[in-house]
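Internal tracking record. Fields below are filled automatically when a chain is submitted to the structure queue. Please do not edit lines marked as system-generated. If the sequence contains nonstandard residues, flag them in the REMARKS field before resubmitting.
Queue: standard
Priority: normal
Entity type: single polypeptide chain
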Amino acid sequence: METGSAAGAETTGTEPVWTGLPPGLLRMRRLLLVVWLGLLALALGVLLGLLAGPVWAAFALLPLAVLAWGWVLLGRNWRSWRYAERADDLLITRGVLWREETVVPYGRMQLVEVTSGPVERHFGLASVQLHTAAAATDATIPGLDPAEAERLRDRLTELGEARSAGL
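SYSTEM-GENERATED OUTPUT FOLLOWS
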């Protein structure tokens, strides 16, 4: 659902150029879903089969049904995340049922950091976290390519310093 290039930052008209999240984030989240719910279904099936009989072991199919439902929901959630760099602020939008759009003015940014936990590093992903004076406008862009996360951090820091110097 990417409508702009990852490096193509600014808008040329009134409509922002949106950038979607890379598919690696969706792959990571779906793999974690399969691993955890698959292990739960296996453990539940074995325990119920041994303790209550083979008919009760059919309840192990419940985590597999949740897995199928979660697979679809993760895809919808992943497609809903986008961000756009504009001249004076950064837009982040997300959400399927409840849409949420966060506008972070460059001049209000106090700290921009790139984080990557062990699972994210394994999948070659990083997150950009933005901190402002008002905690309500703190924002995160998850699952970016590390090079894009660093580029975004450097660009946002540069723009933030330029805008705050003009205050």
